[in-house]
Amino acid sequence: MSGHGEPVPMVARKAAGLKGVAEVPGDKSISHRSLILGALSVGETRVTGLLEGEDVLDTAKAMRAFGADVERLGDGEWRVHGVGVGGFAEPGQVIDCGNSGTGVRLIMGAMATSPIAATFTGDASLNGRPMARVTDPLALFGARAYGRAGGRLPMTILGAADPVPVRYATPVPSAQVKSAVLLAGLNAPGETVVIEKEATRDHSERMLRGFGAEVTTEVLPEGRVITLKGQPELMGQTVDVPRDPSSAAFPVCAALIVEGSDVLVPNIGLNPTRAGLYETLREMGADLTYENPREEGGEPVADLRARFSPDMKGIVVPPERAASMIDEYPVLSVVAAFAEGRTEMPGVKELRVKESDRIDAMAVGLRACGVAVDEGEDWWAVEGRGPGGVTGGATVESRLDHRIAMAFLCLGMATERPVTVDDAGPIATSFPVFEPLMQRLGASLVRVNRA
Ligand code: S3P
């Protein structure tokens, strides 16, 4: 439904209290990478807990088009028979990545150092997003890109026949760019180096190591220097995908703002490159605890317990934390609307080039619901109205953006008057069970018939 189907308008009404256990789906970032690394490996990769959202299913289809054997065995259980590093076949059809920036950018990287051509497209949201951030470094390997003006999809990539290794400092804090370069580096001889000033999610580095590549990370004055030794033989692995902290954010944040709530969200990965939201909520005074903290597969994991929090205060979110919570700002701004005082969010210009311009999408919708928002190119601020202080009563646009749709539906669970989202369809890209999961906790979410 990521822009392909009829819009699905949905209304959220004030809930009496959210209660129970929210089992959120598998991590989107790790799910994409499991399929792509499985496809680039020799032998069989078994994945459990895969997120079966549209974004990841599009990546599964793409891996088949490049020659891998990808099979669904059961709920979240998948098997990939890879073709090995450098073994991608030229696809016989256009690769449609739907709504997924992660899918298209990582796959472009993975094919850019093989002597094949591939044409990529997506939905209206994805076809409006910048791709030069990936095609610029891929050109250094010897790949060529032919796309629309401004480096937009649809776009054809001609992979390099004789790739050279690359040393590249990422100009924007982006795990997608870092990952595209590392995946391209797999089929280049010698060492490929990526330097990032700010730490972004490190799943690619960890998983590449797990599949048998030599990857080192050094923290130097110039930033994090990540070095990959080219042309490894990746071997199929067993991957148990942890649950997505970005999806967990929705039931957690809804519980904090809906009076009478007490929700447990079990088994959430709290990798420091992903957990910035939870730190921020605790600084705001949220009643959010990490229960049963433990390590699983080398990653910190805990059960999150969130209770209604009437005493939250606005804060300035440290800009150096932005990369570790970049997908969580929309729902953070919803929580901020119910805190006392102003929440400032500096250093977030990347939000303007996500599935939508997320600062604009949230600002317009929050204002329509009675919340004052200030914004600049690189920052925004929400004036909190205190617990129970947000009016609601508006219809807001989700702009083909799953996280905007879910953020406003969470808002409507706590506002005086209902909040309607014009299209909840994009939620299927990352959190296909959002609606029944939130309903089981006690949320009132109703699909409305269009006239
Ligand atoms: C992702 C990286 C982030 C994030 C996206 C997933 C990834 O994008 O917003 O949802 O899996 O690498 P950027 O790399 O553009 O910041």
Explain what this protein looks like in three dimensions:
The protein is α+β, with helices and mostly antiparallel strands. Helices cover about 25% and strands about 25% of the residues. The protein contains twelve helices and 23 strands. The strands form six sheets. Strands 21-22-1-23 form a four-stranded mixed sheet, with helices on one face. It has a four-stranded mixed sheet with strand order 2-15-17-16. Helix 3 runs parallel beside helix 5. The radius of gyration is 21 Å and the shape is globular. The relative contact order is 0.16. The mean pLDDT is about 95. Bound molecules: shikimate-3-phosphate. The site of shikimate-3-phosphate has 10 residues, from helix 5.
